[in-house]
TrEMBL record, chain A:
This is Multiple sugar transport system permease protein. Its main location: membrane. It holds the Pfam family BPD_transp_1. Keywords: Cell membrane, Membrane, Sugar transport, Transmembrane, Transmembrane helix, Transport. Belongs to the binding-protein-dependent transport system permease family. It is a multi-pass membrane protein. The chain crosses the membrane at residues 22-48, 90-111, 123-146, 166-196, 217-239, 280-300. GO terms for biological process: transmembrane transport. It is found in: Cell membrane. InterPro entries: MetI-like, MetI-like_sf, UgpAE/MalFG_permease. Residues 87-299 form the ABC transmembrane type-1 domain.
UniProtKB/TrEMBL annotation, chain B:
It comes from Jiangella mangrovi. The lineage of its organism: Bacteria, Bacillati, Actinomycetota, Actinomycetes, Jiangellales. InterPro entries: Bact_solute-bd_prot1, SBP. PROSITE patterns: PROKAR_LIPOPROTEIN (PS51257). The keyword Lipoprotein applies. This is Multiple sugar transport system substrate-binding protein.
Length: 313, 439
């Protein structure tokens, strides 16, 4: 021990240029290693897997061979009608759910920021609380509220003369959206609220002197000032939407109106576990990853052009 | 990433683990048995077998075995939830157990992917103690890949109070069944004769099996898929009539919604396997005394039953000592000593002849107004057609059926259409694996 300290001490005094050039790499190494092992390597394995197929012959009892099939799995994935429809479904879902969720989150954040709400700490906590409930549990809870025989919600609506079927084929997508919105409004509200806290208060005073009302301040000053936070939350919501899995997968167990390939992510899961075809599932996963990337980049480009927000993203 | 590539790694790891265990054991063991197996040389005659299963009470049976067989020690791991899918990954990665319990439906897939060992040389003599259909479930392509542990003969549970209240006879033929369905629904619009869950294809499987069909067959060196065969279409026609006339409900099974309907007496009959009565009792305790069990209705009133498939216990690819594993399974599933615990604690319906003769099988059930219900199920075993055979992508076929049936209950297509689409999906999946499929 003593000698190590001594060596380190003496080295520090005459650190060679080579040594100092090495230091940044040492600091960056842990991240790079984890990044490669847990992100780059799995993507590489998935891409490699997607180019192969397990092939047997005849009845199959002669053994299974791993064969290079090029892009065959991709062709099959894209020819899979339900898989492609799944993308359309999550896009439709996103176009409706994300704006609704963002508007609710932003409205709540602005409301809390005005300081007009009594007991705002309590209400902030109440809005945030659902986020602390894991997605699977949230879906289970709402699942009970959607089933007519056990749901006080359906019972109450029917007492009012409203015949609600939350699990009907056309309705179930919005029931899923409701669960997701309930779960994520809180965290997005907190992020936007934190951003609002960073806006210099003098700007509001200046606006008030110029005769702006609270609504005008909210729309013309607050929202533009927190645009980067809005973009961040929107982007992560879009990614979450394309990867929609927990809620529909859980609700699938209580309704027959959610098939096993309802969303792209569920289709990937079904291909790998139910159909026992990890190669096809890898191809589907790569397609899903690419789609997510493309949508994210497009959204970034569009907003950057419009808002001039480019830094940091 | 084949099992073969990784096999040596597993061998090394396993060897290390056993050597370690041996170092502990050697001090108290005399090292009596001297077998040729490398593991045993290192282990001083002690083999350790890892066994994964889900049957209740298995811990006690394994303890009994371990006490009587100091040189073949079994370690039991209770499977829950998605462990079934974990087994395949574990075997392929070379870290699977030696012995595992499986649904008989998936065995063909395991054989094709080289995940199980042929143990016919060790268990050939056991055949005479098993029912022919259960033995068929472990026999794939000239090999015997395990031993049966329970079967799923089906019968009809019915609400005797509801039938009595409306003065309706309990149906014995499918024609009577349809008539009873109409009479029940006319007498009380809240009551349906059955809930045909689109997501739980077991009842469909049972009725198709009863009708002498099978999802799969072979023709020479090709698979023959009959998801939409004539026998299946006949069942589909019956279901379509029931659905079109609004005589059934279509709530997904196992949901709170389903059990609420059962508890409220909105479902008059349930056609399900011998393992279902225990679940019914557990989930609808308040309806005790109102249920009875009768044979499934059939075309002509003659006894004919279907089966939901049973479970089997197999020796996996990585097992170092298949003979010891086979000996243990042979004792566990077939010996006189284990039959009563498997029936009473495990809730299994026996696939063995000595099990079918066991007194513990024929106890009156208070929930069923003290009827000896297993007499009905034992008769069902005898009357099952010998036609059902498993195929290579059973899970895919069943998922396709469930997905397509779901569109039937929302009125998007008919049961017949659904079967055609499921057939197409099943064939396409087989072909994508390079397997040949007969037209």
């Amino acid at each position: 021990m003593a000698s190590v300290t001594a060596v380190r001490g003496s080295r520090r005094k005459r650190m060679s240029p080579a040594g100092s050039r090495l230091v940044p790499y040492v600091f960056v190494a842990p991240f790079v290693v984890l990044f490669i092992v847990f992100l780059i390597a799995p993507i590489g394995v998935a891409i490699a897997n997607s180019l192969f197929s397990q092939q047997a012959a005849g009845l199959g009892f002669g053994g299974v061979e791993r064969v290079f099939v090029g892009l065959d799995n991709y062709v099959r994935a894209l020819q899979d009608h339900e898989f492609v429809v799944g993308f359309g479904r999550v896009l439709l879902y996103g176009v409706v759910q994300i704006p609704v969720m963002m508007i609710v989150a932003a409205a709540l954040a602005l409301l809390f920021d005005t300081g007009l709400v009594r007991g705002s700490r309590f209400f902030q906590f109440a809005v945030f609380l659902p986020y602390a409930v894991p997605g699977v549990i949230a879906a289970l809870l709402w699942g009970f509220l959607y089933q007519p025989s056990v749901s006080p919600l359906v019972g109450g609506l029917s007492a009012l003369g409203i015949d609600a079927d939350f699990l009907a084929p056309g309705m179930v997508l919005w029931s899923i959206a409701n669960v997701a919105t309930w779960s994520t409004v809180g965290i997005n509200m907190i992020i936007l609220f934190a951003a609002l806290q960073g806006v210099p208060r003098e700007m509001y005073e200046a606006a008030r002197i110029d005769g702006a009302g609270e609504l005008r301040i909210a729309l013309s000053i607050k929202i533009p000032m927190i645009a980067p936070a809005v973009l961040l939350t929107t982007l992560s919501s879009i990614i979450g939407t394309l990867q929609l899995f927990n809620e529909p997968q859980v609700l699938k167990s209580i309704t027959s109106n959610i098939p096993s390939d309802y969303t792209p992510n569920m289709a990937v899961y079904a291909a790998s576990t139910l159909d026992r075809n990890p190669n096809l599932a890898s191809a589907m996963a790569v397609v899903l990853g690419l789609a997510t990337l493309v949508v994210s980049v497009v959204v970034l480009r569009l907003t950057r052009r419009r808002n001039g927000v480019s830094d940091g993203v | 990433m084949t099992a073969k590539m990784l096999y040596p790694t597993r061998r090394v790891a396993r060897f290390g683990a056993i050597a370690l265990a041996a170092a502990v054991l050697v001090s108290c063991s005399s090292g009596s048995d001297d077998e040729s197996d490398t593991t045993d040389e290192a282990g001083g005659g002690t083999t350790t077998l890892e066994y994964w299963g889900w049957v209740p009470g298995m811990e006690d049976l394994v303890a009994t075995w371990n006490e009587a067989n100091p040189d073949v020690q079994v370690e039991f791991h209770r499977m829950t939830g998605d462990d079934g899918e974990k087994v395949e990954a574990a075997v392929d990665a070379g870290s699977g157990p030696d012995i595992v319990q499986l649904s008989s439906d998936v065995l063909t897939d395991y054989v094709i992917n080289d995940r199980v060992q042929d143990i016919s040389e060790f268990v050939g003599d056991d055949e005479s103690n098993y029912t022919p259909s259960s033995w068929k479930a472990v026999s794939v392509a000239d090999g015997v890949y395990g031993l049966p542990q329970g079967v799923g003969p089906a019968a009809m549970m019915y609400r005797s109070d509801i039938f009595a209240a409306h003065g309706i006879e309990v149906p014995t033929t499918w024609d009577d069944y349809l008539a009873a369905a109409r009479a029940l629904h006319a007498a009380d619009p809240n009551v349906v004769i059955a809930n045909l869950s689109p997501t739980e294809a077991a009842q469909w499987q049972v009725e198709v099996h009863q009708n002498g069909a099978s999802l799969y067959g072979t023709e020479g060196d090709s698979w023959k898929v009959s998801v939409n065969g004539a026998e299946s279409k006949e069942v589909a026609q019956r279901w379509q009539t029931l659905l079109d006339e609004g005589l059934i409900s279509t709530v997904p099974m196992w949901t709170p919604e389903y059990w609420a309907a059962v508890n409220e007496g909105r479902i008059a009959t349930i056609i399900q396997a011998a393992w279902f009565p225990a679940l019914l009792e557990e989930n609808a305790a308040d309806t005790a005394g109102n249920w009875q069990v009768a044979p499934m209705p059939s075309k002509d009133g003659q006894p004919a039953a279907g089966d939901t498939g049973g479970s089997i216990v197999v020796v996996l690819r990585g097992a170092e000592n298949p003979e010891a594993a086979a000996t243990f399974i042979s004792w566990l599933d077939g010996s006189d000593e284990t039959q009563a615990p498997l029936i009473e604690d495990g809730g299994l319906f026996p696939s063995t002849l000595n099990g079918l003769e066991s007194d513990s099988l024929y106890q009156p059930q208070p929930f069923f107004a003290n009827q000896v219900i297993n007499e009905v199920y034992a008769d069902a075993v005898q009357s099952e057609p010998d036609t059902w055979s498993a195929g290579p992508n059973f899970a895919t076929a069943f998922q396709a059926i469930a997905d397509e049936f779901s569109k039937v209950v929302t009125g998007q297509q008919t049961y017949a259409d659904a079967l055609d689409k499921a057939q197409e999906a099943t064939v396409a999946d087989l072909e994508s694996r390079g397997l040949s499929v007969a037209d």
